[in-house]
Amino acid sequence: MFRTNRGNAFRVNIWWKGAHPGCERAQWIGDKMSFYAPHPNGLGPVIIRSGKQIEEDDAGFLREPPNFERYKQPEWWKTRHGGLPEPLRHNSGHEGSHTFLTHEFIDALAQNRQPAIDVYESLACTVPGIIAHESALRKGELIKIPQYGRPRR
Q1: Model pTM?
Q2: What is the 3-state secondary structure (H, E, C) of 35-97?
Q3: Alpha-carbon torsion 38, 47, 95, 146, what sign?
Q4: Using CA atoms in the order 2, 128, 30, 15, what is the torsion angle rounded to 10 degrees?
């Protein structure tokens, strides 16, 4: 479990071993709409919108039943619209994201500019997992995640 600097909680689950099919997927849950990336059991990707009608659930609570919509997730890496050169148009895992990251890095070098994912963005994505592991080793002790911001110019 993580807590943002604004006090909001979010969780990250990782299972490396166990009786499960294994996958990497994400879900964004909101009060009006949610998105679930593909699930290894064959469902997804789906968008779920809050319903308009009120129903009673099996415990007697009133709720708005959700509306499920199948979502046709574009495979941008297959198209010229994705901005990838032909040699990089292949599924590289993580829904094809690796080729986009590779192209962005090489293009930044070729154009002599900062890449979209620089060392600070990389730290922001990596350090929380390292700190979470340290927290687990300390029986769930809350540990503040250090911030590595961009230097001021």
Answers
A1: 0.61
A2: EECCCCCCCCCEEEECCCCCEECCCCCEECCCEEEECCCCCHHHCHHHCCCHHHCCCCCHHHH
A3: negative
A4: -90
- Residue 89 CB contacts under 8 Å (≥ 6 apart), including other chains: 77, 78, 79, 82, 99
Q: How far apart are CA 131 and CA 142, in angstroms?
A: 9
Alpha carbons 25 and 31: distance in angstroms, whole number: 20
pLDDT in tens, 92-144: 877 778 888 888 889 999 999 999 888 898 898 899 999 999 999 999 999 99
Return the residue matching tokens 């994705």: 82
Helix, coil or strand: residue 128:
helix
User: What span, in angstroms and rounded, lies between the C-alpha atoms of 97 and 26?
Assistant: 14
3-class secondary-structure state, position 23: coil
Mean pLDDT of the chain: 84
Place of tokens 């709409």: 33
* Alpha carbon 95 to chain centroid, angstroms: 11
